[in-house]
Amino acid sequence: MDNITGIAGNKGKGVSSDAEVEFQSTSKGGIEIQIESKVKALYGNHIHKLAEDILRFFQIKNAIVKIADTGALDFVLAARLEAAIKKALPEKKKEFLLPMLDENLNGSKKEAFRFSRLYLPGNSPKLMLNAGIHNPNGLILDLEDAVALEKKHEARFLVRNALRNLRFYGAERMVRINQGERGLEDLEYVVPHHVNLILVPKCESAAELKTVDEKIQALRTSNNIEHPVWLMPIIESAKGVLNAYEIASASENVVALAIGLEDYTADLGTQRTNEGTESLFARSMVVNASRAAGIQPIDSVFRDVSDMEALAENVKRSKALGFDGMGCIHPRQIKVVHDNFAPEEGEIDQAKKICIAFKEAKAKGLGVVSLGSKMIDAPIVKRALKTIDLAVKMGKLEMDWESKEIEK
To answer: What are all long-range contacts of 10-13, with beta carbons under 8 Å and residues at least 24 apart?
Structure first.
């Protein structure tokens, strides 16, 4: 049957590291591949062969393929062509997968540091390619708000391929899925390909989260995924705030609870401000629910990417409320977030004194620990140990700090 056409990808002004692929199935004439690219002289043969390999994989013998390339890597080209083919021929169910990077096979720890997570639109490869070099704790490939409705299907193929072939430079591999049934379908494209953490947007009940978790576990089993897939539900409504604890404790795979203040303030019918008085109740609820459930509370993104001073103040307020991290929408925000969530010198010095006092008291068999005129109990020691751990991991304290302190 002629003139069955599928198109996927992006082209035009400002587009780079991408391709728009038009696939037209024909009843005769064999394979015709047309390539438009500024690097055609260097890479035209390679692009042509990759397209041939994909068409052969899907057993397509008659088609016209038009590729408008702007410097796309192989995993991007493959995603675009596969999406275009499946738009035209949805009966083609197999997946064309390039070999996976070994470094993208690893899992992540439940207690991993999540100071920063950088949002990346799931249908914009140019923003993905070097995002990891900015050292965020997590990279979020976003299938939800950052992707236009008509692009959501093709974005799944790009995100799937990115999970396999994009270098994350040690960042936790995260994906934000869509809501409801679309989100459950999203899972089929990401869980089998070693995603570390799923962000569940606009979560309002434990039942919603359990449905997502059950689908993940079924996909893990059927695809022999050994490492866990963690959950980070995002609270974005008044109802979600009131159900924060039941959401936070809905599954042992929930590692963090985040809040999304743009949607939350819209739900309240108010404006979001830098001071955050309008969201103080909600943010406090999220922190308390998270601590009660033994997971990490994660604050919302800060929208003004040009004002680093205001961001720093926002991070300090966030830390003072008890949050462990926040979202980022631009790489320049990452360092500011890390610097201001990290322990300050005074906190580190106090934590060192508490740890040493506790160790000395324990060696003497004392049941009570004191530092000066203040008594030190288990929660204070636990907080001090966490501060020390953070300081070491962020390079603010040497690993053998204790032996050097004793030498003094």
So the answer is: 10/123, 10/124, 11/68, 11/70
Question: In the 8-state DSSP scheme, what is residue 395?
Answer: T
Kindly report, residue by residue over 130-152, the tens digit of the pLDDT. 999 999 999 999 999 999 999 99
- CB contact at 8 A, 251 and 294: no
**Which tokens hold the place of 278?**
């309008």
> What's the pLDDT score for residue 373?
66
69 — alpha (psi -120 to 50), left (phi > 0) or beta? beta
| CATH tag for 4-88 (out of 3.90.980, 2.60.120, 3.30.230, 1.10.287) | 3.30.230
DSSP 264-323: HHHHHT----SS-GGGHHHHHHHHHHHHHHTSEEEEPP---TT-HHHHHHHHHHHHHHT-
How far is it, in rounded angstroms, from Cα 11 to Cα 390?
44
Cα separation, 199 vs 236, whole angstroms: 12
Calculate the alpha carbon distances from 369 to 349, 360, 364, 388 in Å: 17, 9, 10, 18
**3-class DSSP state for residue 344?**
coil
For the segment 248-275, the average pLDDT, to the nearest whole number, is 96
For 102-341, which CATH class? alpha beta
Contact 273, 250 (CB under 8 A): no
Tell me the residue type at 272: R
Number of Cα atoms under 13 Å in the Cβ half of residue 248:
24
Query: Which residue in 296, 318, 327 sits closest to 120, CA to CA?
Result: 327
- The rounded distance, in Å, linking the Cα atoms of 198 and 192 is 13
pTM of the model: 0.91
Backbone angles phi, psi at 100, to 5 degrees: -85, 140
Beta bridge partners of 139: 118, 173
Find where tokens 């990759």 sit. Answer: 50
Percent of the chain with pLDDT over 70: 97
Other Cβ atoms closer than 10 A to 254: 24
CA distance 185 to 43: 35
Domain ranges, ordered by start, for the chain: 4-88, 102-341, 345-407
Compute the Cα dihedral for 37, 40, 43, 47 and give only its sign.
Answer: positive
CA distance 342 to 348: 10
Higher pLDDT pick, 355 / 318: 318
Strand stretches in 38-113, DSSP E: 63-69
Distance CA 96, CA 7 (A): 17
